[in-house]
């Protein structure tokens, strides 16, 4: 369990945040300036907060009331930055060995061979950082952090400096870390797609305060939160791969409702998480016919949240789970929408990007809680 309670005042900003999170990937999610990096720096020991307590399991890193402030080098934290920050004069093998050199002799260690295989960096071992792509550098940086035998890994927007192709390359490796490595990970992001795909637990931040915490499906499916704004609103559904069709579509079963998506690279029987962006959902009062969109999810309006402009976020309860739709107020009025109204959510198959589909990880096994 990661236990964090911090208060720190800057000239124009005060952070006052507290949360507890279980093992897995805990994502700090919010706009720029919401306090994400401040929390990460406090955890790493790079910032001395005015007040607070930080503990990882039974190890206390900070407790201002008791006068405990472990220096950074004694916290056993692996830090993954936006850029790999590898030593340019060392090979990949030597960069990995540098991380292992810092591991305490009595600490449980990961086997170098297992980490190399996990991250797919075996062919890179004799190369130097200048010859690596951005995604390859990040994989090596992750390996170096893991081999230092950390109690906690901090990943501060590790994909922000990568293009979309490199992000797609490295996201599966973060999924494998979440599922196969016991070290807890605190991951900073303002990308709803990354959060939906990776998070075991989401801690939503706004202006230095925790506005929500819990599993990704709960936090991202709550229209009252929207920590990244209405444009990023979207719900997360859990489904299972049924079959791959010859026309390039994959059929999923979302608690009895069929979903058809562009081919999902997972075998039948696999569980997946699917993020459906609110602006890609159309609502209909009656079940439509002769429609090109393949995904039709009947549901009931749960709540409605008007935005600052002409739009409104409509939250629906369906058999597949919570679905959000971003429509105009004019449409909502014309349809007579209100809590309890029966509607049908319509989603085009091609509206769900490959990056919005990932493994379920430990989703649903537990969420964060307030201390």
Automatic annotation (TrEMBL):
<dbReference type="InterPro" id="IPR004606">
    <property type="entry name" value="Mop_domain"/>
</dbReference>
<keyword id="KW-1278">Translocase</keyword>
<keyword id="KW-0378">Hydrolase</keyword>
<dbReference type="GO" id="GO:0005524">
    <property type="term" value="F:ATP binding"/>
</dbReference>
<dbReference type="GO" id="GO:0016020">
    <property type="term" value="C:membrane"/>
</dbReference>
<dbReference type="Pfam" id="PF00005">
    <property type="entry name" value="ABC_tran"/>
</dbReference>
<dbReference type="InterPro" id="IPR003439">
    <property type="entry name" value="ABC_transporter-like_ATP-bd"/>
</dbReference>
<feature type="domain" description="ABC transporter">
    <location>
        <begin position="1"/>
        <end position="232"/>
    </location>
</feature>
<dbReference type="Pfam" id="PF03459">
    <property type="entry name" value="TOBE"/>
</dbReference>
<dbReference type="InterPro" id="IPR017871">
    <property type="entry name" value="ABC_transporter-like_CS"/>
</dbReference>
<keyword id="KW-1003">Cell membrane</keyword>
<keyword id="KW-0500">Molybdenum</keyword>
<keyword id="KW-0547">Nucleotide-binding</keyword>
<dbReference type="GO" id="GO:0016887">
    <property type="term" value="F:ATP hydrolysis activity"/>
</dbReference>
<dbReference type="InterPro" id="IPR027417">
    <property type="entry name" value="P-loop_NTPase"/>
</dbReference>
<keyword id="KW-0813">Transport</keyword>
<dbReference type="GO" id="GO:0140359">
    <property type="term" value="F:ABC-type transporter activity"/>
</dbReference>
<dbReference type="InterPro" id="IPR011868">
    <property type="entry name" value="ModC_ABC_ATP-bd"/>
</dbReference>
<keyword id="KW-0067">ATP-binding</keyword>
<keyword id="KW-0472">Membrane</keyword>
<protein>
    <submittedName>
        <fullName>Molybdenum ABC transporter, ATP-binding protein</fullName>
        <ecNumber>3.6.3.29</ecNumber>
    </submittedName>
</protein>
<dbReference type="GO" id="GO:0015098">
    <property type="term" value="F:molybdate ion transmembrane transporter activity"/>
</dbReference>
<feature type="domain" description="Mop">
    <location>
        <begin position="290"/>
        <end position="356"/>
    </location>
</feature>
<dbReference type="InterPro" id="IPR005116">
    <property type="entry name" value="Transp-assoc_OB_typ1"/>
</dbReference>
<keyword id="KW-0997">Cell inner membrane</keyword>
<dbReference type="InterPro" id="IPR050334">
    <property type="entry name" value="Molybdenum_import_ModC"/>
</dbReference>
<dbReference type="InterPro" id="IPR003593">
    <property type="entry name" value="AAA+_ATPase"/>
</dbReference>
<dbReference type="InterPro" id="IPR008995">
    <property type="entry name" value="Mo/tungstate-bd_C_term_dom"/>
</dbReference>
